[in-house]
User: Fold this.
Amino acid sequence: MSAIIDVVDTVVYALMFLSVLYLLVFAFFSQFHRNVDLSTVKTKKNIAVLLPAYKEDAVVKTSVASFLRQQYPCENYDLVVIADRFQTSTLEELRKERIILLEVNFENSTKAKAMNYAMDYLNGTEKKYDIVVVLDADNEVETDFLERINAGYQKNFMAMQTHRCAKNMDTDTAVLDAVSEEINNSIFRSGHVRLGFSSALIGSGMAFDYKWFSENVKKTFTAGEDKELERLLLSQGVYVAYLSQVSVYDQKTAKDTNFYNQRRRWLGAQFDMFFRCAKDLLGSILSGNIDYTDKLLQWMMLPRVVLLGLISIFAVIWTVFSWTYSLKWWFLLLLISFALAFAVPDYLVNEKFYRAMRKIPYMALMMILSMMHLKGSTKKFIHTQH
Assistant:
């Protein structure tokens, strides 16, 4: 029995050590990230901005009004709002704005369906577009947002992810959501591009070559459309740039129930994509497609807060039963703490941050529970209320 426990402990430790090492390396190199030169260029490309929205009456009007303050020439961009199950009063207000309003009522709503509907509409018009941008209904951007997207595109970036950050931090849950977002930005975006890998996508604040997007968005059909787009991009060898100085302000989850629903959808999409694409792992390695290999390995990993919680539990348990066995677990806990410390930007480390940290054990439990209820989470849109 003792030998079996030793083997299990060694295997589990090795897997967790590799995960922590992965996080630590990319978090460290994120400290040396360099911004892309996005100086304004004279040529103005035509841009279609897609804003899929499902029951987002509470926030969409503010986001639309904010976006329409762009410095970019009006004739060179269109804001397309795909309004799914909106109230009549909201639709009447939106019709007054300088937007293309598409009213839909899908039986099983997903962002993929909304984007495909919008692209079918745009492809049927006479106007030709060069770039497509995807935003969420609660997103707000700076007035030079499209200018910078245009500059990035003319550096031959066919796919770009902007820097999504918190618009609100009014509760402990919202603070932890904001911190989690910035950790992802550091590890999976800044750290990755610094080492020559593609940036991860995040679901909004994304920009693509219009022709590529039009041809490939047809292949997305789940609520994890950003993961599907990542698979298509990386399997085709398309590099994803990270525009760290281009901010998109996103409404953070303020309530625990919404946090649970959001994470359940995200985790469902992650593991669903891995099981669908695991067969590609050997081929991606043999073909030298490092970006796609990295993404598949990334999708295998446990969420950070779950990893942190499990390492802590193993450290405590082994301290009780065999302190010598516990040393390697305490060392691993120290390593993951360093990784997370590297990844959290200084501007978030304040009194709110330290107060919110007390909620991490509860959030870890929520994440574990969400992992146990992933069935059906990618089949339809799980609405995150604001």
